[in-house]
Amino acid sequence: MEDSPIGLDKWLTAMWLVASNRNGISSWELHRALGVTQKTAWFLLHRVRLAMQDELTGGSLAGEVEIDETFIGGKARNMHTDRKRRVQKEGRNTGGKAIVLGMLERKGRVRATVIADRTKVTMQPIIAANVEPGSQIFSDEHGDNWKMAEYTHDTINHLVAYVDDNVHTNGMENFWSLLKRGINGINGTYVSVEAFHLFRYIDEAAFRFNNRLPMSDADRFSFLVRKIVGKRLTYAELTGKTEEGPSQEIPF
Question: What is this structure's pTM?
């Protein structure tokens, strides 16, 4: 809030709306609710999302942990011709979609992050940094590509079944469903999301998931307000003015 011309009444109202709306709130909705410009509402929302980031102070995930990946974005056939050419030029085999890796401690917390690809070189260090050695990992058949000796690993082949006794990734699938309920160009809260900012929306979804019932809306709001201390995001940082190259939208 440092040097912000926005009044405390609008800041706190925005935090309440973000914390209490299950699928989030768009900048257009917020601009109408607060009586500020859409640009101001967009900037305000991203600063609130910064406060929602997991500081990882709770330690690593442990016990039974589900690990899964998902793709965020639309189908290539629905892309604008220029964007389709750009994706083909970049040689990406994801159809222009972003890849998100998720890790869920059963009956506990979820952590999710955007990754460049699904190779073990990319995934193993992230998993090792977030999951305690000796944990029981459950994943789909792709998990065979990045298995690690430090963990007990069970996989479920989704071409055959989605549940085999205790082996499944249904908890992560539930989180993906909640995430995509907000990030969906047709029926979701947000019309489009730039890949440059995708991690912020994932942080928001993880915060809401990790602080769901029995935590009340009031308690979630209070927790969010306490998390703003020491965090700052400038407009230049947010818009990529300090980064080289333009950001790209995730198409829907």
Answer: 0.84
Q: Which of 173, 129, 126, 132 is nearest to 152 (CA)?
A: 132
Strand ranges in 40-120 using DSSP code E only, listed in sequence order: 64-72, 98-105, 110-115
What's the angle, vertex CA 167, arms to CA 166 and CA 173, rounded to 5? 110
Of 209, 169, 197, 188, nearest to 70 (Cα)? 169
In order along the chain (252 residues), what is the average pLDDT of each group of 10 residues?
Answer: 89 96 92 96 96 89 97 63 49 69 96 95 96 97 94 94 94 94 76 86 95 94 94 90 50 40
> Mapping DSSP to helix (H, G, I), strand (E, B) and coil, where does residue 241 land?
coil
- φ and ψ at residue 139, rounded to 5 degrees: -150, 175
The C-alpha torsion from 26 through 29 and 30 to 31, rounded to 10°, is 120
Place of tokens 């539930």: 174
Tokens representing 5 are 């011309």
Please give the helix or strand (H or E) that residue 212 lies within, else none: none
Tokens of 27: 């900048």
84, containing H or E segment:
helix 81-90
Which domains, ranges and CATH numbers included, belong to the chain?
8-56+192-250 (no CATH), 64-180 (3.30.420)
3 state SS of 137: strand
Residue bearing tokens 């047709």: 186
Tally of CB atoms within 10 A around 18? 23
